[in-house]
């Protein structure tokens, strides 16, 4: 999701287990993979040192060029002195006094050149030392470069692109996973009341990262849109939508460009298009309890929970016919017609929250501190099991918890905090023999 700090990639590469099934277990660094390699870091440090030394040599070279001009000037003056000496020899008596004075003046002019010449010698010695050190460093750099393969940047870049392509191909082969672990949360923002919902579209393209924000569980019909998580954090709102009806609860979902929500004081589900600003479909969810008849433990008209996963669109609710226990219904995303339903034995009023991953409903035992995923029901096998998957309820009151299949994360509203949980799933990779 680009929210957590960069710790590296988990890159899947196919291998086979004893039964011939394909599995993925290889870990590779993040895209700037050279920067974290010890040898590459050493190479970079040495290259920086060479660059610094080259700059120093350039400064010394400029100084020696300046000093060389002094030397040329001194050479001219020395030639002048030589001529004066010859004149003195020719007429020692007559001109002795006059030329001696001129000679003294010339010598006074030459005295400041003596320290300059000494500095010139020192600079020349330093340049020689620097050149020798650079030769030694060049040998070391060549050795390190050969050891790591001597890849240039473009070649490494192409290798990363190839690895990304292989990763995407491998991810497409992943079957639906089973929840193994929940980590986090990562706090994205603090805003709104204690209760609300925020979400992204799991079917949106990789470049489309719009966020929708719905504060409160009732008496509201304003949806706020942000172009990205960054805009959401900074409060840079892009659009607002005024829904034709107020919503009930916090268990809405955005799916394939439309918002699905429970109409206030009814068991009617509404499909609203963000693109057209119109209601595309509405349907009563037969026998579903509403208006705090069968809410989650925290109340808030959370009777009907709409959610989406890798398989499609779902509604989770309770009915009198099922003695107030949870019913799971798969919905047609266009017509909202119930395609199939499963009756569980878990009391809806005892559930803190729930979410779907790969056709399995996961139910938490509480919305307060100490909550954990306590129960799961598989629609594929029509079986349930009791689980023990803890997660950190950092702000003590969760009123919305939904899985996003694109981000492989849980979006949560935790006591006025918008947070994300990372999930760890157990996957089996599809093979050609799988049906």
CATH architecture of the domain at 178-426: Beta Barrel
Number of DSSP strands? 22
SS element count, helices? 5
Instruction: Report the top-level CATH class of the domain at 178-426.
Output: Mainly Beta
**Mass-distribution shape:** elongated
Poorly predicted segments: 1-15, 22-36
Question: How much helix, percentage-wise, in residues?
Answer: 25-40%
Keywords: Coiled coil, Disulfide bond, Glycoprotein, Secreted, Signal, Synapse
GO biological process, one term: signal transduction
InterPro entries: Noelin_dom, Olfac-like_dom, Olfactomedin-like_domain, Quino_amine_DH_bsu
Disulfide bonds: 176-358
Characterize the structure shown.
The protein has 435 residues and is of the alpha+beta class. Among the domains are: 42-89; 178-426, Lipocalin (Beta Barrel). The chain is 31% helix and 31% strand. It has helices spanning 38-90, 92-110, 113-148, 153-172, 229-234, and strands at 14-16, 22-24, 178-190, 196-199, 211-215, 222-226, 237-242, 253-255, 258-262, 268-273, 279-284, 305-308, 313-318, 325-331, 338-347, 354-357, 360-364, 372-378, 383-390, 398-404, 409-414, 417-426. The strands form six sheets. Strands 3-22-21-20 form a four-stranded antiparallel sheet. A hairpin with a 2-residue loop joins strand 8 (253-255) and strand 9 (258-262). The protein is elongated, with a radius of gyration of 38 Å. The protein starts with 13 loop residues before the first strand and ends in a 9-residue tail after the last strand. Mean pLDDT is 81; it is low at 1-15 and 22-36.
